[in-house]
Structure formats: C-alpha cells, structure tokens
User: Fold this.
Amino acid sequence: MPAPSDLEQLLRGADLRVTRPRLAVLSAVHDHPHADTDRLIGVVRRTVDVSHQAVYDVLRALTTAGLVRRIQPAGSVARYESRVGDNHHHVVCRSCGAIADVDCAVGDTPCLTAAEDHGFTIDEAEVVYWGTCASCSAITTTSPS
Ligand SMILES: [Zn+2]
Ligand SMILES: [Zn+2]
Assistant:
C-alpha cells in the first residue's frame, strides 16, 4: 500500500487537487485491485463520509487522468485497478467472476502488431482470457465421496 504522501504526489502529478475523497478512492483502488464500484464505495466510506455519486465522480476523474484503469469484461460491471500504463491483460473466471492480471505474453505489447490494421493507428489491444479459477475448478472436479 503506497504511503499517503505518494498518493498525494500521484494526484498532483496528474494536475488533480488533493482532496480527502480522491485520496481515499485512490488508496482503495490500490488496496483492492479489480474491485467494482460498490466494493470501492464500501471501502472508501469506512474512512470518509462521501456520497455514492462522489465516489463515481472521483473514479471517473482518476480514470480520465490515467491514475486508474477501468476494465469491464463482457457481462461484468466495471472494475478498477491502479496498475496503469503497461497494457497488461486479464484472466476472468466464468464461474465466480474472479479477475487476475496476466502480463503480456512476449516482450512489450506484441498484441499491438495486428495482422491487419485496416489503416488504423492502433495504440491499445484489449485481451481478456476467460476460464475457470483454481477454487472454482476445485469445486467442480472434487467428486463427492
Ligand atoms: Zn472462480
Ligand atoms: Zn489488472
């Protein structure tokens, strides 16, 4: 967990005024990678008295400023994480919705080299791996004795 002064520096570096709600949301995202908005609201409201709408607004501001990355796998609500700028991918469990980080398979963002770019200037590839997480596979493969 980054020190409060580090979080303040992140906000200032992104030209955002340092406020308690912003610090609280940013710290919650750092502590709970891939949490959805409801979970973050719960965490933030333990320390700061803010409305749901305020948390939504702060998340949007942090996402726009590039301090937080918003991911939304198909069929899932939006999740937020503080690991930004490295184009990493995610593996999602079809059964329970658990999400984990997956580094780019080979070297630096090889997925950006599309086989056919149709004339687009491509700056991001969004890859989601779908499967079954370890605890869900354990449940389905354990036969009742
Ligand atoms: Zn699972
Ligand atoms: Zn991630």
Observations:
- The pocket of zinc ion (ligand 2) is lined by residues 33-34, 81, 83, 88, 90, 101 (CB under 6 Å).
